[in-house]
User: What shape does this take?
Amino acid sequence: MSETTNQAFAEHSIALTLNGQPRQLNVQPWATLLDVLREQLDLVGTKKGCDHGQCGACTVLRDGKRVNACLTLAIMCDGAELTTIEGLADGDTLHPMQQAFIKHDAFQCGYCTPGQICSAVGLANEGRAQTPDQIKELMSGNLCRCGAYTNILAAVEEALPQSATQALTDGGIDA
Amino acid sequence: MNPFHYSKPVDVSQAISLAGAASRFIAGGTNLLDLMKENIARPEHLIDITGLPLKDVSETANGGLMIGALVSNADLAWHPLVEQRYPLLSQAILAGASPQLRNMASTGGNLLQRTRCYYFYDSAVPCNKREPGSGCPAKDGLNRIHAILGASDDCVATHPSDMCVALAALDAVVHVEGRGGKRTIEFADFHRLPEDAPQRDNQLADDELITAIELPPKGFVAHSHYLKIRDRASYAFALVSVAAALELDGDIIRDVRLALGGVAHKPWRNKAVEQSLIGQPVSRENFVAAAEAMLRDAKPLEHNAFKVKLAQRAIVRALSDAATGGNA
Assistant: This one.
């Protein structure tokens, strides 16, 4: 828990774990996690679609839970463990969900894909989807303007059992 | 968004001491940051409350639940005690937003969501809720999604929450704390009708923080149902929603709760209508009569007259599904 800070529009120093690496960052209070990832850290896999939490293209994992990076202030990620699309593979071995998206050709233009994959891994961590209908409902926060939903569903359905990166427990949001 | 100061207090009293007219508390941020990006909310100071100890769900002495204001919507919907004892609340939460947003959004913040009226969100046009006294283009504009009950000349906006419709039906109590101390607010009194001050959505003072939501023991486990009608199958705000809960003795109604979403500036209840069902048998005729009574005072606008019939039919269906064990 950080101390109260109230300096005039100051940059703040935060410490977090990003794709397994500890990072120390200076961020302005109003910088979103999405903009910091893309502009400050050159992690451009996370996409800016609507920038209003409606399309899911910016989905990343925060402490194993899927969140919209566009509606997250970076300054509020102090102490968090973040995983972006760049952090899912193990070296040259793709994450099972990435492999399944390739196998099922679960994209056309590919712009929504990093968000779809991170969201599907978050779905696996939640452990709540068993049927195709449940997968569809619980993937509804990720839009695909190309309409590749049929293949996305096939990929998610196949890879879901192997895709959890961490078990989630109840207990509110993590500060 | 505009530049702002940022603070992260470590306890409730510190958070309250920092609060003022130009500050906002931030937890999930899902609505507030969106409004800040649209330049509709322009706080000078964000008070990050995610470090406060308000993250527990615990049983109360009388058999109810106390839900910390920072419990996420997802954690609340999937909390074992909520799933077992308040399935209506679980169902309503899961009908709203997206999984990502539910992971982020807090219980307290859900109550403080602002309307999704197009005109409120469009800073190029007047809006009494955004700029008091400037006018209401929705009244004579594109008002398909707007209110049919409890609106005023100044505002026809609706409250967007699903969770709040269930909390209204369950007679939840809002616990708040401000510089003047702690107080509780009955859920039915928490949100306001627009009247001539639509800029005020609820009864909170600037320095008051929601600390918890209390659920009374009665969860209507056997007979409740949340029905949400929207323009697509998922991830859309309600045109009309119904939280229906029944306590039955055989087929006689011993207690009933009925709350509507998507039709007014706050979750809509009518206790006289609920009272009229008590002692009556479960029947389509009785449900139809209740549905008609719920909408008797409806004043539809040019484009939302369909909501009256839609709400009536949704009420009948939700009550019928509840009677046959909607969540079982």
